[in-house]
Amino acid sequence: MYSPNQNARPRSGLSSPPEQEKEGLLAELDKIAPIKSFDAFPKVQATYTAHSRRGGVLTVIVSLAIFLLVLPDYSFSIDSGLEDNLQLNVDLTVAMPCQDLSIDLRDAVGDRLHLSNAFAKEGTVFEVGRATHQKLSKASKTPSASKIISDARRSTPNQKKSLSGVRKFFSSSGAQQKHFQYRPTHNFVKDGPACRIYGSVSVKKVTGNLHITTLGHGYMSGHHTDHDLMNLTHVIHEFSFGPFFPAIAQPLDMSLETTDAAFAAFQYFLRIVPTTYIDANRRMLSTSQYAVTEATRVFEHGRGVPGIFFKYDLEPMTITIRERTTTLYQFLIRLVGVIGGVWTVAAFSLRVANRAQKEVTKAVAGEKEVIPSSFSRPSSSSRRSSSFLGMGSPSPGVARTNSWISGDNSGDWKRR
User: Fold this and answer.
1) What is the pTM of this model?
2) Does one domain contain both 152 and 61?
3) DSSP 101-140
4) How far apart, in Å, are the Cα atoms of 143 and each of 151, 158, 255, 270?
5) Is the pLDDT of residue 176 over 80?
């Protein structure tokens, strides 16, 4: 008996049924419009979405979180430094003669330091120059870490040149030799009508109060300043903590305070925060920055102590400002990661909150359900009979009439 070869290939020009079906399916697919876009994630049409105030607030919070996470890095830590002292840098001019001023410091430990000889005092002529009032000065933009580090290494007109500093060091004596890094006094006048006070001193790293007062009106002194000579108008050229970097801008730099009263007190309240700057080139600078608020008070003789007071306090933490530069590719990867992570967490939180709200609403609604009454409502025929008789709530007699009408003898009554 002849049996065909099962493994025999078909002749050329002929195709097997599965191949024919495959070719037909491809031909049908080719007739359909080509695919222009493909999205593996399901989308919800705008007509099926509901806008709510909660969703709007969540969108704003998520956008703010994404913006903050993309900003430069700031890290906070507890100040674990073991330093006992802190350098204080002062440079200001007071519109009073130097012999009538006293410089003192009192700290939280209880020590009182008489610093009139620790700072350099030189007579001059009082000039405002480019100084502005502290209340009128505009808040400057916070500089970057690289700019602060570059300014710290840059010499400025406030610093003397090396040659002139060496000459001044050998030609002067006392406090001037210790503060030779400061610029020379402009319009120097011996025993002039104004006094420039400048220098750097080491103080204890605790809360303190540096005050400049007039002799005879602050601490006990054998000299009493004439009231007509008292004028505490002053210009602050430099006031900083830590290493002396005059090129770094501080909140009190070039600030001016004026007064016409003999008895006035200028108070500055400072909050010091140790700060470490690290730029993109891994250069590091350790210094201190501070925030300041000021208050001025004018009073009568015997009602207060006239002077200039700097009350400072140290925060128990340090700030590390790290500047990082990345390529566009790295920035995009970081941006996509931040947006995806924050948005996923926010969507999950919103879904959990909506589910919890639905469950709570369902539980509250279940407690308020009313048990239905077991009495049935009156039939439609009874309501029609009642309305026909003209009464909304029939009496017992009417009820019997209704039952007689709806009884078996209704046909006899109609025939009659």
Assistant:
1) 0.58
2) no
3) EEEEEEETTS-EEE-TTTSEEEEE----TT-EETTTPPPP
4) 10, 20, 19, 20
5) no
